[in-house]
């Protein structure tokens, strides 16, 4: 069974593309287009290889194809399909992962999971004026930060709390030995514009350094969004006395210290 998806993330903002996102363009040996890597470009070689092997009479197995158009939106249909499928498969190949580099092929044998939840934190009976109560009244956003801090990886080691590590399988010696062929983790992160999440291997990142006069993202004088890194968030310590209450995170008036916030 081979799996892939043909839907893609939105191509906006279009003005940041050097070439049209849905017109594949080859530059320096690479194909640039929306879906070239996630996941149309990854999936296409699989059925092509199966067809070539079949035409040559060299395909030793039956091949089934599952390709969907909902992956970027949750993939509910494909998640329900295995429960109704009666034919099954002896193995599955998913070409929707990554390699460290073009010269280092990789087989992904494990994936991370994710837990999503929505909850409310209430710290007061009603919103309070930040000029009168800010800094002394318990702020719902601060309480939320404290709760999340308790389950974050240790800043020194990068490891989760012991309670959250229950059930983790030990690394086999052969797998651990294979890691020696991988490039340095810090270098891999730096190449993608990121930095390690824990301090033991921390190296300052020029675009994420703390600055005393750093402006808020909601500031009308902030630089255009396109000029910032696409996803990394600053780890600079902040203690805001005001914050938005909407789930969208849009800027709110600085005159209120909300009693509740939603994550």
Mean pLDDT, all residues: 77
Q: Order of SSEs, N→C? A: EEEHHEHEEHHHHE
Which structural class matches the secondary elements?
Answer: alpha/beta
Please indicate the percent range of residues in DSSP E strands (runs of 2 or more).
5-15%
Indicate the radius of gyration in whole angstroms.
24 Å
Number of strands: 7
Number of helices: 7
Morphology: extended
Oligomer: single chain
End-to-end distance: 38 Å
Approximate helicity band: 10-25%
Major sheet attributes: 3 strands, parallel
Low-pLDDT runs of 5+ residues are: 200-257
Q: How would you characterize the overall build of this protein?
A:
Strand 2 (25-27) and strand 3 form a beta hairpin. The strands form 3 sheets. Strands 4-1-5 form a 3-stranded parallel sheet. It has a two-stranded antiparallel ribbon with strand order 2-3. A two-stranded antiparallel sheet has the order 6-7. It has 263 residues and is of the alpha/beta class. The longest helix is centred in the N-terminal third of the chain and has 11 residues, at 45-55. It has helices at residues 40-43, 45-55, 76-84, 130-133, 140-149, 173-178, 185-191; strands at 2-5, 25-27, 30-32, 65-68, 93-94, 120-122, 260-262. The protein is built from 7 helices and 7 strands; from the N terminus they run E-E-E-H-H-E-H-E-E-H-H-H-H-E.
